[in-house]
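Open question from group meeting: does this chain pack into something compact, or does most of it stay loose? Before anyone orders reagents, we agreed to write out a predicted structure and look at it together. Recording both the input and the output here so the notebook holds the full record.
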Amino acid sequence: LDNSGTAFEAELEYADMDTIHGHILRSYPVETEPACSLKLYLALTQREKFEWILQKCTEAGVSAIVPVYTERSLVRRDKNSDAKLPRWGKILQEAAEQSGRGIIPRLYPPQELAAAVRMEIDTSCKLFFWEEERERTLRVMLEPVKAGVKKTALFIGPEGGFSAREAGLAILHGWQPVTLGTRIYRMETAAIASIILTLYEIERD
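Structure tokens returned:
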């Protein structure tokens, strides 16, 4: 992959201890990318769970991921926080290759929630998944706008959910609270479901 939507078929010739050698036979456009760019704001959690979520959300079609520190996050910011980015980036690359993606999702440095909710200045469709919301479903929120939406942002909270203060701050900055239904999901389930269901609703005729 060249990370711009083109894939290459190559014939391997030989390998040594450090490199694999071959030559390109042909290139072709990858047609698996969603028409709508989808950025996921994801609360940080324990290492193994967070890395698993990164992998599965890449397979599901996310375009970018912003790790977020929230009041109830199980992981707190420290001096080594940004040191995890190379490992996370490698996970995204491998998941993109495995699932036949044409683009590796962009990975942003971790943000505090107060800064994260301010990042989407030019995105009109900003969905804040919150267990306290009861009425507004994805279909209700997306049906009026899906014909023209090219970029969507989703916000998924930590294991303990968002606090009322965090939800109020997000709403103040234009995020729309939305429900995934009557059941309470684990954050990894909510993250994957939010991507798959959002893309389904946008692509549905």
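Observations to bring back to the group:
The mean pLDDT is 93.
The longest strand covers residues 6-15.
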